[in-house]
User: Fold this.
Amino acid sequence: MNSGIRATRFQHLQTYDYRTHTAKIEQLCQGGFSSLATLLTTLHQNCPEHPFETGPRASKQRHVLYTEMLLDSRHERCRNASIGLRVNSAKYSTAHSQVECYMLEHDQTTVAVEVPVWTSAERLANIPVPIRDKEFLSGHIDLLAVEGNSICIWDYKPDAKHEQYASVQVALYALMLSHMTSIPLHQFRCGYFDATHVIEFTPNQNDLEQMTMVSVADQPGSVHINPSASRVPGPTANLKALGIKSPHPAMSASSVMTWHLFSTQKKTVRETAELRQMSLQNVYEDLEEAIRCGALSITELVPSDRLAAIAFVWDQLADDQWTPMKSLSEKLQGEFPHGVLRCAIAGLRRPLRHWPK
Assistant:
């Protein structure tokens, strides 16, 4: 399946091997994605160097993106990553090349790798990226796929589950590609992965405009107290110093802080995320832990009548369902964020099946 692969080497401060699969582009980009097909072909002959010479890179942005994300441990892309790392270990020197080239050759949906993207400062007027006039935000998409009616931006991360800023990186990639193709952002999906986990989400302009920049003082290992709020715990603040008592000895410090804001101070999930400078996904994970420990009632998140509806649909799903949480969300017509559904299943004392802990 590697016939029709075309490669061009770019020197954009470092070397990038841009590769496309001609046959898959022609097959998958028919109709609504014709502008994407044109761009992918044109880049081989006409990719300017100046957008990559100055200005910020998407991969270097340190922000908190408040958006709902889906974690999956049985995604096809995990399996392909595992195979690529194994069969290409002698052929390519880096894990990225091993994974990217295998997927371009063998995955039915991957149409290009190391795709150069950029956008001007003026088109980022409402996005909190540090950029000067006449500069460009730029980057290179690890894997670009067309999956059904969506253009999918994928980034390979060797330890995906513990990535802090990859969601911002791929969301900015989607925004730049949207600018370059005039394809609306809602037609994109974003994600990052390794051989064991996939994290994916749908980007949107509002979340990008509201993302919060993380300062040097907020990097892992530091203590952050939000200056705009009194005695609000940041990611690693000390419980005892804040006078917060854990409701259960098995709860982590992070879960206790999140529980305190949500249950005791009656903050919303989004307010809690903003005050703690965490993603919504991480807040829901903390609340799930509080629910499992009995410190929080699920009815504080979900009304009893809707909880019954969730339970009914969940119990109808097949035991061998590969992505039960995604199926549950679809059957409930997207009424609840995935984080709420996960908390609901914890509150109902149902097993999470394939959803990894």
About this structure: The radius of gyration is 22 Å. The beta strands are 5-11, 15-21, 63-64, 70-72, 110-120, 136-147, 150-156, 188-193, 198-201, 212-213. Residues 5-213 form one domain. DSSP finds 13 helices and ten strands in the chain.
